[in-house]
Amino acid sequence: MSRHQIIRQRHETRRRTLTLSSIEPLGDHMRRLVFTSPELHDFVSAGADDHIKLFFTAGDGEAVMRDFTPRRFDPAQATLTIDFALHDAGPATQWAAAAKVGDTLAIGGPRGSAVVPDDFDWYLLIGDETALPAIGRRVEELRAGVPVITLSVVNDAADEQDFPTQAAWSGHWVHRAGSSADDADLLLAALKALTLPAGEGYIWIAAETGVARALRAHILDTLGHPREWLKAAGYWTRGEADASDKSLDA
């Protein structure tokens, strides 16, 4: 297998019903929910930024779906962890905010995985709260000693997270609170202040679609980073409910 080969996998998809087993607050604007179910016995999530569909009922009774990252899957314990960013008033946020142990939730997928090899010299992961589940999972899964830099914008210090890892992790947090700049300007300024390691690196970006596009353009056009070693995704789009652009590189 050639170096830096990204492997794309397809998975058989079906709906599963999970039961909420524990709840943990993550700062003021996120909530970690751990689910269990015997139906997880053949669940597969091979990529750190995989997406599953979560099924909810809106206020008008209409069934709605939302995409979420499997934050952690423990096949031995048959548990699936999902982190919810409490950033809007949509059905997913409402459900997560009111959820109690014993509640059930239906999920589907993931349909596929893009497995990024753990053979780069370094990694740079950039995003907002919606990207933190994928960022945290990637940091925790990387090999011992490999440099990984994370650049994350959150509201304030209370929303910062710690990722237990054997990788050489350097976490940079940017706070919106008290700043008049938008996420794109905050993250671009922080990115420009970074000194990236030598060697061949993989860069991953996920944020609001316009923010992700601005960061992608700077990395490609100004930094000259190889396009094939960059993935940028719009996990949400300002002003549009349930809108995203998961592959800005297509």
- The CATH architecture assignment of the largest domain turns out to be 3-Layer(aba) Sandwich
Q: What is the CATH level 1 assignment of the largest domain?
A: Alpha Beta
Mean pLDDT value = 93
CATH topology name of the largest domain: Rossmann fold
Structure class: alpha/beta
What is the element string, with H for helices and E for strands? Answer: EEEEEEEHEEEHEEHEHE
Give helix % range: 10-25%
Number of domains: 2
The CATH H-level superfamily of the largest domain is: Nucleotide-binding domain of ferredoxin-NADP reductase (FNR) module
Strand content bin? 35-45%
Please state the CA-atom Rg, rounded to the nearest Å. 18 Å
Shape: globular
CA(first)-CA(last) distance? 24 Å
The number of helical elements comes to 4
Contiguous runs where pLDDT drops below 50 for at least 5 residues: none
Major sheet details: 7 strands, antiparallel
Q: What's the count of strands?
A: 14
Strand order of the largest sheet: 5-4-8-2-3-7-6
Primary descriptors:
250 residues, alpha/beta, Elongation Factor Tu (Ef-tu), domain 3, Rossmann fold, 7-stranded antiparallel β-sheet, 5-stranded parallel β-sheet, 4 helices, 14 strands, 17% helix
Plain-language structure description:
The structure is a single chain. A 7-stranded antiparallel β-sheet has the order 5-4-8-2-3-7-6. Helix 3 runs parallel beside helix 4. Strand 4 and strand 5 form a beta hairpin. By secondary structure, the chain is an alpha/beta fold. The chain is built from 4 helices and 14 strands.
